[in-house]
Every structure is written in structure tokens, then in C-alpha cells.
Amino acid sequence: MKPDVWKPSRRVMLVSAALLAGVAAVSLTHQAEARAVWQELTLVPIAWVGAALLLVLCQLACQACRLWAILPRDAALSIARTAYAFSLGEWANIFAPARAGDALKVVLLNRIRGAAPLSLPKATGAILADKVVDVGSLVLLCSVTGAASLIAASARARLPSSGVTLAAGVMLAAVLLGVRYARRQWFARVTVLRSELVRGLAALKDPGRLLASIAFSLSAWFAELLALRVLCSALGFPLSLPQLVLALAALNVGISVPVSIANVGVYESVLAFGLTQAGVPLPTAVAIGTLHHGLELSATTLSAAGLWLWIAARRQPDCVPDRLPTVSGEG
Questions:
Q1: What sign results for the dihedral spanned by CA atoms 233, 236, 238, 244?
Q2: Where are the domains of the chain?
Q3: Is the pTM of this model over 0.85?
């Protein structure tokens, strides 16, 4: 087998094709269940789907504001241009393997000129800070709603043994010592990059910006929870807040490592599993997962396309001259 087959993009394509083939095979061999899922999809009123789409768009807007709030002070980037970088990066994450859309966010933030342009390491630090706030707000939401105890109870049996934990700690210490005693020139270069990275993470030490970013992050999670609740209620299953939080937590853990294009198949399966744990029948849970995934993809595409067109329009020169040229001579 040729070595280029194992490139990340090729692996994603192969896994995506295998998943689609598996979905087709399951649909053919379980036609009754597939018809049940289709019937559930047709039962959702179009107005409820539109309301859920608006909530997902609000979710994306809050996520873009979260990134803007966590950017370094000297960046001086507008919310609209930050949203442009965020939305295009999220759209790229749909198709690109290994979360390459996050790398695109770094590049776009670096290219947007503010009072002091963001360097690539500083932009990387800002993206990492955004991820920290995102995950931290989800953990906070789980703790407040009581879903954390349910997650801990289900994961307690899967914790690694003390021997494995000790071995991991020894390996980590060895790596750190190796880095510390590496060649001084190499370590000096790494120190410069680290200082820029730390500047990008500096907002985590600013109480005002950190609180603003957490507020936007919680608003984004609540918008996503409301969108999911709208879809569940449309099919007769108005789940409680802890049940919805638990389903979304399971979803984000399940899709944290992308294995197919747009996480097709994985997204629906993981969200359906989380919903069935709350008592939703499997066909209904699969229908909700499919609708929710479709709305997320549609909203991401709409926001990315709209902001890209807006930026492209602003870059175009004015086609109408201020003054018409005069023509001398006789007519």
C-alpha cells in the first residue's frame, strides 16, 4: 500500500466512506427502523426547525464574542472581524481533518491588522484560551445543573489504575527534564515562542475579560441547549436541563477527535446515545441528532458565507468615480 494513503486527509476520507457505507447497510437491513426515523423527522413542524436554527445562529454569535473578549488588549480587533475569523475556522473544521480549522483561525487573526497585529504564537495562545473557557464553562454548567455527578458515576469504573497513572507521570517528568536540559540555543528559541504564547493566554489572568468571556460562553451553551430542547419538545420529549446538559457533554466528548468529514455518523450516534439515556426512544433520538447536526452545519455555513461576502464587499474599491471625466473639443 502506498504511504500517502495514510495521510490524515486520506484517512478521514476512508473512514467517512466506511461510515456512510455502514449507514446505508444498516438502513437496508433495518428498513423498519429507518422508516421510523424518517417518520419522526417528518413530524417536526417547520416553524420549530426555524426557531432551532435561529438559536444555533445565536450560539455561533456568542462563541465569536467569547473569542473577541479573550483576545489580547493590544489586538484592537472588531467583533465583526473576529467573527469572520471564527466562522471561517469553524466551517473549515467541518471538512478539514484534525481540527485544522483552528489553525485557520490563528492565521486569519494574524492577518487581520489591528493597532498591534497578533503574532502567530500570540494568536495561538488566544485560541487556546478560548478553548479553556469553552471547556471550563461546560464543566461549570455540568456542576451547577447536577449533571457532573451523573458523568462521574458513569466514568468511575473507567478510571486508569494507579500504576498506569504513575507511569504516565514518570514519562511526563522525563519529557520535561529532556526539554529543560536541551541545547541552550534551541531552548532560547522555545522560550521566545512561549512568551508570545503566554501573552495570548494573558486574558485568563484579567478578571474582567475572563468574566465577559465566560458569560458569552455560557450564553452559547444555553442557546445550544434551547435549540436541542426545541427539537426534543417538537417530538414530545421536553427533557430537563440536567438531561440536556448530559447529552451535550457526551456529544462534545464523542466528537472531540474527528474521525469522519463533518463527524457524519459519529455526531448522530453519540447524541442519540445521550438522549436515550434520558428515556427518548432510539428512532426519535436518532431523528433529533440528525436534525441538530444538520442545523449546526447549516448555521455554520450561513454565518461563514455571510461574513465572507461582507469582508469581500468591504475590500472592493468604489466602482463609481466621484467626478466624471470632462471631454474637451466640439461635439
A1: negative
A2: 29-154+173-311
A3: no
